[in-house]
Amino acid sequence: MNRTLFAKELRANLFVSAIIAAVLAMYIGTIVAMYDPKLGKSLDAMMQSMPELFAAFGMSMQATTLLEFMLNYLYGFLLTIFILVLILVMANKLMVRYLDRGAMAYLLATPNSRTRIACTMIGVMVAVLVGLCALVTALEAGFAEALFPGDLDVQALVQVNLGLLALWLAMAGLCFLSACLFSNSSAALWTGGGLCILFFLMQMVSQAGDKFEFLKNVNPLTLFDYYGLAAGDASAVGGAIALAAGAVALFAAAVAVFDRRDLSI
Amino acid sequence: MSATIGPSIAIEGLTKDYGSGRGAFDVSFSVERGEVFGFLGPNGAGKTVTMRNLMGFIRPDSGSVRIEGLDCFAQRARIQERLGHLPGEIACMDEMTGTAFLEFMARMKKLRDRTRMNELVEYFELDPARRIRKMSKGTKQKVGLVCAFMTSPDIILLDEPTSGLDPLMQSRFIELVLEEKRRGATILLSSHLFEEVERTCDRVAFIRAGKLAAVEHMDDVRKSRKRVFAVTFADAAARDRYVAAHPAATAHGTASVETTVGGDLDAFVKGLAAYEIVDLTAREQTLEELFMHLYGSESKGGSHE
């Protein structure tokens, strides 16, 4: 890690991260506010009127507790798709654009190895995602505590969010590897991004209809079982660990590729 | 780093094939410590490919590229401790101001003393306060030059260093190169302009279509370089008589000739005295012409861009 580069890139990515954080804060606030422990049937009624559509976005459970309600409406879609957008913006800023515009030549014209440069860029991504995950957890707990004191199982929430972080990091690893792999800038950005989007579509299709249930088995997103994590299931914890391990492997592969490849800069 | 024996920069049999004739093919030359070495060739001849190899951006298909005995690809980070580099394409971090960029680069290079950096900013009359995106090409080039020289490196690689600079700044650049040479720096500069190479370099390599045509001492090149005179006669008849008498001259336009003159300037002027001359202009041989002259038989058949 190079502190100078880390500080510069963290600052450069702060603005877009703040926007994503603001959007997530708005959604978290809205969803938590919509929870009504006694009369909370309106959303359920809406859900029953168009079950396939809600199921596609991962909102299919009859929510009985505040945590289940949040899991149902936040974790299937909102807390993942917005983060994917942020990850793609960061992968573009931290690697794709540097190579495409040739500015990487300046970074490499310093006594810093390619491994060090790549690890610093990964460090920025991980720092932003960890910070955002902490913020999301704080917002969820904060809103819940303010509106429904004592209703939220905070420990279960933390378990779920650690799994969520593993999922984010795995997506970031995939996008960063693709950014390091290709010299064509569109391919570098959209191979990783496209795969993530494909996984989301597969998940939506498999949740909506029984016919496509088999897609679940080939989809890495299935490893993030948030209901299982809330309950502390061993298999769900295993899935989260697998995602984290995948993230480490993908980032390591990205560094190795970046260290060895030819750079036309 | 311990002092190594042998040349500062050593390229042996470097081949990097990008397909369809682009790249570098079996390029070999070396640059001695404290030498200023020019690397001349037309656009797309393989100058930048060679520079990328020296910077460790790309790995040679075959051959070896070494700086101070270190492999340029495998040990690039160590080499960078003593190296200054100006990329051929000025693509700085657009969104930064010049000041912020230079400060950032100084930190990345672990440069403690900013005296030299500020000296260079003043020397090139650079106003670094603006955003790099809004700067003209010449100003961006100045930022790159300050960046390349600010650590007072032992080895300096410059890819087309004067592109975008006005004539005053071009001569300042040449002064700077000579000053750095006196300090003992080894400098490799690539160019397609003969003038900047002529005024700075001890030796020069000609590259064309990825192949090294020759490495020459600048003094020898200067000696063999001739002038081209364009002479306009009063009428076509006089021109034709002159061409008949001087087979070296080639007819141009209605009443003009172009002729290349080496050492026998006196004979050329006296030969013209018998005719009525309307106009006479002289220019230096272009790089291409000189090149053809030096290596005519081998290179004429080659791919001419």
From TrEMBL, chain A:
Pfam families the UniProt entry points to: ABC2_membrane_2
Transmembrane parts of this sequence: 12-35, 73-96, 117-139, 159-180, 187-206, 226-258
A GO molecular function held by the record: ABC-type transporter activity
A GO CC term attached to the entry: plasma membrane
Swiss-Prot/TrEMBL keywords: Membrane, Transmembrane, Transmembrane helix
Protein name per the record: ABC-type transport system involved in multi-copper enzyme maturation, permease component
Organism: Gordonibacter pamelaeae 7-10-1-b
Automatic annotation (TrEMBL), chain B:
SMART domains for the chain: AAA
CDD domains assigned to the protein according to its UniProt record, in alphabetical order: ABC_DR_subfamily_A
Gene3D superfamilies documented for this protein: P-loop containing nucleotide triphosphate hydrolases
GO biological process per UniProt: response to antibiotic
Occurrences of domain ABC transporter (ranges): 9-234
Presence of keyword Chaperone: no
A Pfam entry, by short name: ABC_tran
Subcellular location: Cell membrane
One GO term describing the cellular component: plasma membrane
Entry GO MF terms: ATP binding; ATP hydrolysis activity
InterPro entries per the UniProt record, alphabetical: AAA+_ATPase, ABC_transporter-like_ATP-bd, ABC_transporter_ATP-binding, P-loop_NTPase
Entries under PROSITE patterns matching the protein: ABC_TRANSPORTER_2 (PS50893)
Keywords: Antibiotic resistance, ATP-binding, Nucleotide-binding, Transport
Membrane topology: Peripheral membrane protein
Listed name of the protein: ABC-type multidrug transport system, ATPase component
Organism, scientific name: Gordonibacter pamelaeae 7-10-1-b
